[in-house]
Amino acid sequence: MAITIQDVEHVAKLARLDLTDQEKQTFTEQLNAILKYADKLNELDTEHIEPTSHAMKIMNVVREDESRPSWPMDKVMLNAPDEEDGQFKVPAVLE
Predict the structure, then answer these.
(1) pLDDT per residue over 30-50, tens digit each?
(2) Quick one: DSSP state of residue 15?
(3) Which residues does 47 contact at the CB level (< 8 Å), separation at least 6?
């Protein structure tokens, strides 16, 4: 399937782009080059290749959760502009 200048004009219209004739020609050639490359990739024999979501194996590198003591509440509330019942009090954002 080849991209035509009419295809480029249609997409440009949908995107509300005002393209010059030279830009239309350039984009048509570039998009056809991309499709040609994709067709070349389709020629590869991938029958014995296992599908992957990434090119390399991904490992989770986060540490295990460890329970630790929290800061004392009086130190936590030192910088609070306003506090009520051991909680931060903030201005209402809804009426």
Answers:
(1) 999 999 999 998 888 888 888
(2) T
(3) none
Residue 20 tokens, joined: 């010059």
The first and second tokens of residue 88, run together, are: 């931060």
The pLDDT tens digits of the residues spanning 6-24 come to 999 999 999 999 999 999 9
**Summary count for the chain: helices (H), strands (E):** 3, 2
Type of residue found at 81: P
Residue 53, CA atoms < 13 Å, CB-side half-sphere: 1
- How many other β-carbons are positioned within 10 Å of the β-carbon of residue 51? 5
Q: What angle do CA 67, 69, 73 make, to 5 degrees?
A: 140
